[in-house]
Amino acid sequence: MSSERRTRAAIVREFHEGSAKATDSILERALRIAPCDEKRGGELPELLQRYGNQNFTFFGGTPFHEVREIFRAISPQPHEVFCDAGAGYGHVVFYGASVTACRFRAIEILPVRCAAMRRTAQRLGLTHVDIVEGDALAQNYDDVSYLLLNNPFFPDAAGQFIDKLKMSRNRLTTVIAMNNIVDAFREDAAFTEIEVEVDIPNYRFGMFRVRRP
């Protein structure tokens, strides 16, 4: 590992441990995350027409202090899979891959974002991050241990996605819901909320699991 890469890794690790402070822009640079101009490629209007029920018009990465709270709370293990459905430019998966040893999967529908994530993974030398270009509604989550959903769908699609999770053979997936999809899980009797202490407002954050029969 080069001295530059060690320095970048140390910035993220020390922020995660709480031994040093860092702004989101500093952490983005350390993680080599570089959002692109999505309008230039002309992909967004076409995808809006094809997948108008998905919320990918504008992207704002999950704040890193919230990402830190999530990974401190769950402490994923090497044999587990953490999946971000609607991963954007990979803020969550690349941070997680820098501080934990589990496997990661980033699902993203916009090709320009997937291409950017692949470049980031290569720059960071990460081999345990899979980047899947496709519709989150069409994926299989049976092997997923932790599933992050941060505002990925509009209400109709959110309902379809939740129904899909209820039919999954995996009854142990922990769903980490943020922003507009949180209430949908709280209102669904098929899910139970997991009590967890995180420094994220309760009204837009919750962890859930399908109730066992």
Write the CATH architecture name: 3-Layer(aba) Sandwich
* CATH topology value: Rossmann fold
Give the CATH level 1 class.
Alpha Beta
Rounded to the nearest angstrom, the radius of gyration is 17 Å
* Class by alpha and beta content: alpha/beta
> Which strand order spans the largest sheet, edge to edge or round the barrel?
3-2-1-4-5-7-6
Kindly report the name of the CATH homologous superfamily. Vaccinia Virus protein VP39
Query: What proportion of the residues form beta strands (DSSP E)?
Result: 15-25%
Instruction: Work out the helix count.
Output: 8
Distance between the termini: 49 Å
Overall pLDDT score: 88
**What share of residues is helical?**
25-40%
Major pleated sheet: 7 strands, mixed
How many strands in all? 7
Shape type:
globular
- Write the H/E string, N to C: HHHHEHEHEEHEHEE
Q: Could you say how many structural domains there are in total? A: 1
Low-confidence stretches: none
Please characterize this protein's 3D structure.
- This protein is an alpha/beta fold and 213 residues long.
- It has a single domain, classed as 3-Layer(aba) Sandwich (Rossmann fold), CATH 3.40.50.150.
- The chain is 38% helix and 17% strand.
- It has eight helices and seven strands.
- The protein has a seven-stranded mixed β-sheet with strand order 3-2-1-4-5-7-6.
- Helix 4 (64-74) crosses helix 5.
- The chain is globular, with a radius of gyration of 17 Å.
- The chain starts with a helix and ends with a strand.
- The model has no long low-confidence stretch (mean pLDDT 88).
